Amino acid sequence: MSVVSKFNQLIEKYSSLTYQQVAGITAQQVRDEFPDARLSSTFVKKVKTLLLRHAEKIEDQSNLQRLKTQAWDWLQANFPDIEAEVTRQDGRPCILLWPKGRPPESEDE
């Protein structure tokens, strides 16, 4: 089994762990995942760093989705007669809001 495929298995194995749990993985636990290989400490550190980055990315995506849901729920609770659309203005993401039943006003008007 190649190192890349073994690393992909590690990502899958540890994908349900939080960032803090991945941070708690020891160098020996990483070495144990590659029983037939002699691993340098640099390689082990890099594997752990990549696992941490992956865990951080998953948590960031989860946090972003939770914030989007909270924002939408707040808008619906406080402004039930609005429609919203995620768009970009000047290259930056933004949310366009308008009353239901009316088309959004464009910047050209």
Rg over C-alpha atoms, rounded to the nearest angstrom? 22 Å
Query: Can you tell me the overall shape?
Result: elongated
- How do the helices and strands follow one another from N- to C-terminus? HHHHEE
Number of helices: 4
User: How many discrete domains?
Assistant: 2
What kind of sheet is the major sheet? Answer: 2 strands, antiparallel
State the strand order across the main sheet: 1-2
What is the overall pLDDT average? 84
Low-confidence stretches: none
Helix content: 55-70%
Number of strands: 2
What is the strand content?
A: 5-15%
Given helix and strand content, the structural type is alpha+beta
Distance between the termini: 62 Å
Structure at a glance:
The protein has 109 residues and is of the alpha+beta class.
